[in-house]
């Protein structure tokens, strides 16, 4: 049977039932404690008040319920996280297979295929996935990005990881400028903020050269950063791929 003796203000109190014993410590300097009953309403309880064993068991049951709810929420989040990891691995495997076969469209380029190539590059960079982006470049691809020189696919991954650690909430628009048989030049702009919340719009030009598999072997990029206010931002779509109906740089007068 449950011991129904009442408890008064002690620095240590013990609750005994037929099944278990619960012990809790109380700060001697405090004269009250905050409790939550089954109605989930907080109550400030003075230690001068008497607490029955039944009441203490009710509070204990409430805590157990809360912990159970938290466990279920965390387990659901863990499941979503695992699903995302599996999805990312599948996406990377598909991208790697495409990289081994080449990356269409292939040179020599037409106006239509050059536009398609530019949009594919924009979509990949807006994913902010360094491994996915790197697969559009040859194993020995050579870059100059601003004043930094990057050689090889592994170095490209490292560069992009550093880039998107610094450039947060990154959104990019690219636009075809000109093309030749195996070369394309583009202009672009992207908006981002640093970890202090300062916003920038970065303007740049790129020159690309491709091999016969459609993989980029050389990339030369010159970029300038313009500080902007948050309300001056023009790229506000949900992070990821720019929607098809979203206007480009020319329409935005950038």
Compact description:
Helices cover 33% and strands 32% of the residues. By secondary structure, it is α+β, with helices and mostly antiparallel strands.
Keywords:
six-stranded mixed beta sheet, elongated, alpha+beta, 254 residues, 2 domains, Nuclear Transport Factor 2, Chain: A, two-stranded antiparallel sheet, disordered N terminus
Description:
The chain contains 4 helices and 10 strands; from the N terminus they run E-E-E-E-H-H-H-E-E-H-E-E-E-E. With 254 residues, the chain is an alpha+beta fold. The longest helix has 49 residues, at 53-101. It has 2 domains: 12-70, no CATH class; 102-232, Nuclear Transport Factor 2, Chain: A (Roll).
List the helices and strands and how they pair.
Elements: E1 12-16, E2 21-25, E3 32-36, E4 42-46, H1 53-101, H2 111-126, H3 130-134, E5 137-145, E6 148-151, H4 153-166, E7 168-179, E8 183-193, E9 199-210, E10 216-228
Parallel strand pairs: 5-10
Antiparallel strand pairs: 1-2, 3-4, 5-6, 7-8, 8-9, 9-10
